Structure formats: C-alpha cells, structure tokens
Model the fold of this input.
Amino acid sequence: AQSVAQPEDQVNVAEGNPLTVKCTYSVSGNPYLFWYVQYPNRGLQFLLKYITGDNLVKGSYGFEAEFNKSQTSFHLKKPSALVSDSALYFCAVRDTGGFKTIFGAGTRLFVKA
Amino acid sequence: DSGVTQTPKHLITATGQRVTLRCSPRSGDLSVYWYQQSLDQGLQFLIQYYNGEERAKGNILERFSAQQFPDLHSELNLSSLELGDSALYFCASSVAAGNSNEQFFGPGTRLTVL
Done:
C-alpha cells in the first residue's frame, strides 16, 4: 500500500532564510510525487511534480524539490522564504500502477518578517 | 483561479438529510476527483471519474455516491448525514486519468451538519 509522511506539523522560518518542508513516501513501484500548497479558505494549488529524470525539480513561486530514491524522500525547498509563502503544504504520491493519489497530513509553514 | 468551479460554497443542513455537491472541471479536463478535508482526517480521496466512468475509489462511505455526466460535470451525493460528515469537500480535475497528471482543485464546499 502506498503512503506518504510529512513528519513536521509546522515549520517556522525567518523571511530571507532557506526553507525545507520534508516528505517521505512508500510505494510498491515507481512513484509519481507532487507538492501542493493551500492558502486559507482556498483549494489546493499545484506547485511541482516528479515523474522521471532529473532528481531536482523546479516549480512555481521559486520552489524546488529533490527526489531521493534511496531515502524515499521528496523534500520541498526554497532558497529564500517570503512572508507570503506562509500556507499549508501537502506532499502527495501516486503509484505508477494505480490511480489513487495519497496526500500527506500537511505541514504548516510560518514565515516571520 | 484554477478553472474548477464548485457549488454551493457553503451548505448547512441537519442530521439525516441528503445534499448534492456540484463540480465543473476545467475546460478540456476529462477526469474528476472528489476529496474530503477535515481537521482530524486530513485530506481523504473519495472517488475518481474519467469521461463518465468510475476509475478509482478511495475512502468513500456507502452513504455517499457520485457520478460524472456527459458534459463532464460531476455531482457528489451525501445522504443520511451525520455530524461527522461536516467537512470541506473538494473537487479536482485533470486532463486525463494518467498517474503523472497534476490535479487542479476547486475552492471547495464547506458542509456543516447540525
């Protein structure tokens, strides 16, 4: 069975500092991995995805994520955080052999000015 | 704006009642997904349709049902409502049913069961 874990409920970072939001996954085959962001009272917005190829994936709003097969991780990163990045971030995984997308519990990011 | 629309935005009803949530996918998207988001359960996948056919089923209760119509809009029917069904219900759409496709989410319907 596929699963995804976001070990931190909350991440606090100062504006201008780099940020990392962690995600680990478990699937039976090769994974498709996604990051989404949710702002208050809004639906989720797609940030980036890993399908195959280069382990470093670049996405919207300056975010990037690194796929690490040996550690089964797909951490979200940004070199310099903005206050406007404060939101709820979800990691999601899909098994290449299935159709269900499993979302992590979410990590709330607070960026202080 | 993702291009996915959901109606109504808010719904307040009583236990035992039945409600219908509606979703219109982005133009050109054939696949529709339904999710339930609550504080204690997080984001739970309910069901997926592709071009009118059910494609995948998640943690959907038997009291819940869905369908996708020929014009590709979808409806989620919730019956015999319980207090625990209070949640935010999201619809999402994607171009195809393929696993590599990202999903585009609507703004959600907030259901409150009193």
Remarks:
- Chain A has no helices and twelve strands.
- The mean pLDDT of chain A is 93.
- Chain A touches chain B through 24 residues (CB under 8 Å).
- Residues 23 and 29 of chain A are 17 Å apart (CA to CA).
